[in-house]
Amino acid sequence: MTDSQQFRFQSGFPKIGIRPTIDGRRKGVRESLEEQTMLMAQSTAALISEHLRYPNGEPVECVIAESCIGGVAEAAACADLFAKSGVGVSITVTPCWCYGTETMDMDPAIPKAVWGFNGTERPGAVYLAAVLSGYAQKGLPAFGIYGEDVMDSGDPTIPQDVQGKLLGFARAGLAAAYMRGKAYLSMGSVSMGIAGSIVNDSFFQEYLGMRTEYVDMTEFVRRMDETIYDPGEFEKALAWVKENCAEGPDNNPEEIQTSRERKDQDWETVVKMTIIARDLMIGNPKLAELGYEEEAQGHHAIVSGFQGQRQWTDHFPNGDFMEAMLNSSFDWNGIRAPHIVATENDSLNGAAMLFGYLLTNTAQIFADVRTYWSPDSVKRVTGHTLTGAAENGLLHLINSGPATLDGTGEQQKDGKPAMKPFWDITQDEAQKCLDATSWRPASVEYFRGGGYSSDFLTRGGMPMTMSRINLVKGIGPVLQIAEGYSVDLPEEVHNVLDLRTDSTWPTTWFAPILTGAGAFRSVYEVMDQWGANHGSISYGHIGADLITLASILRIPVNMHNVPETDIFRPRAWGLFGTANPESADYRACHNYGPLYK
User: Which pathway does it take part in (predicted)?
Assistant: First the structure.
């Protein structure tokens, strides 16, 4: 990991606390259960540390209570240990009956789950039901985990269905815990009247536990003019860019094309902008060495947005290179974790990107949900008949300038196109992503100040999940989810469709999975029901994890195509109704209110 990455993650990560609870009766009962109960805790910790990693690539750490918890004194000692150890998520495990309200985790801000062992020798399932009833009564939503098959007493294995729920809850819980106390950095203000770039501090504070930080875009000018960046890194970055970032054709009419001298100046400016934006987000100890101690600290931001249009881009090179490179898993400093930066300061799409990133540790594609292409329209315009995943139509996802270079699909997993955590990306894969991208001189009619836009075509065959947060007056935030696949089109068909919009921008052809119901009756309906002009696209089908995370944060989901059997929410959600889970979700989220209200 690079020095900047070590600096970026120096504050560490939340740990998962494992709470082995036990029947408190001595003189035979508790003693007979100590070994089995603690073994459940150790097995849970081992499962999590083996399968889950933090954004820096290190295994997730677990903290196990120092003793089994048989009553309130031991529960309090465990809570004290967790507070001192930086625990942000708790999992209670038990094979037996315990005293519910005496042993439960009472911290209202910590996501919590309970695994009750399904065995007939001791009533772990009875305790699970009792303690979840107590959580519901006290207004503390908790996830219940109970294996489908009866296990033998003392069996140390964790059933597959239980493993899935433990890991799904842990991923979402860690995402929620890691966001807490961090910041969204608004670089500029509202872009072109886009409502998502009206940064809503109440949403970030009450639902995500985050601060909102703000800088005017003139801060970029100050730092460029006064050399408040690392000159050595700038020279290194510029040389790397000249070697690895191929400049594509200039599509502007000849009379308004910029000169070669101006283009070279733009390259220098956009590289400086990239370094400065990163420093604004996470800080840079090198600045302190240069005499800028305040600037060296950064804004503790795990996500940011850049307004750009129009006040910046009417005069300066656009932010496309900056956004594309920061969102990618590599740059002149090597392969590293991506930064999350929202185009046009769309903070709500930035939040969705952050969710996807924290659940997968992979880069996220920011895109306009631009056009629905019906099979008939494609046939009329190109003569081509859509087949396979695309047979019911396509969504043209194309951002007006940048998108993560990981989105090319030039990385591979099991021989297929993929987007991977940075620690799994090879140098050859990073180079292929760079080689598949050309940097097109910006369309001057859009971007009067010049700059460069990343141009690539996403490879087909990747499972992908598109998501978006919208704010609704009177309700608050709602989340929408669409799982699907990236699609390959014949080159001549892609060219015809792509040239109908700006060909200097990156394209992903996306086919959502249809269910025949609700918003997923057709691809047209998905487009028609999408709540805004932007979407965040993550590699993999992660809709179930997004739903789990949303329930932790008390954000209802207004549309999704996730199989019902994969959905995992707190047990209390069922007490708001079981016949219509979507309506129950809205009622539960409204009842409990935002996590940090």
Answer: Carbohydrate degradation; L-fucose degradation; L-lactaldehyde and glycerone phosphate from L-fucose: step 1/3
> CA 385 to CA 382: how far, in whole Å?
9
Instruction: Give the per-residue SS3 of 125-159.
Output: HHHHHHHHHHHHHHCCCCEEECCCCCECCCCCCCC
Residue of 344, 410, 483, 498 with catalytic role: 344
Q: Which of 230, 266, 331, 368 is catalytic?
A: 368
The model's pLDDT over 428-447, given as tens digits with 9 standing for 90+, comes to 999 999 999 999 999 998 89
Please report the domains of the chain, with CATH numbers, ordered by start residue. Answer: 3-179 (3.40.50.1070), 183-592 (3.20.14.10)
Integer Cα distance of 41 and 49 in angstroms: 12
Give residue 595's pLDDT band: very low, low, confident or very high (50, 70, 90): very high
Task: Using DSSP, state whether 579 is helix, strand or coil.
Answer: coil
* Measured distance CA(189)–CA(577) in Å, rounded: 41
Annotated binding site for Mn(2+): 344, 368, 534
pLDDT single digits (tens) 556-591: 999 999 999 999 999 999 999 999 999 999 999 999
> Catalytic: 368?
yes
